[in-house]
Amino acid sequence: MKELLRTNDVTVIAFATALLDAEGIDWFTFDDNMSIMEGSIGIMPRRLMVHDRDLFMAEAVMRDGEIDLGRG
To answer: A single Pfam family, by name (predicted)?
Structure first.
């Protein structure tokens, strides 16, 4: 799996996953349960992962949805 997106903003994760679902791209989030460690204050970023083979298409979907991937 490859990291597509890393953010503290749960609304961005929700929007991104909705876009991926609409395109039929499988995804998985890492670090969802870090709120236990951080005390639910939202400082630990969540990572949105996709299969290696889907990364190119997923990046295009994020660009079309105007989601900043934070890469050069």
So the answer is: DUF2007
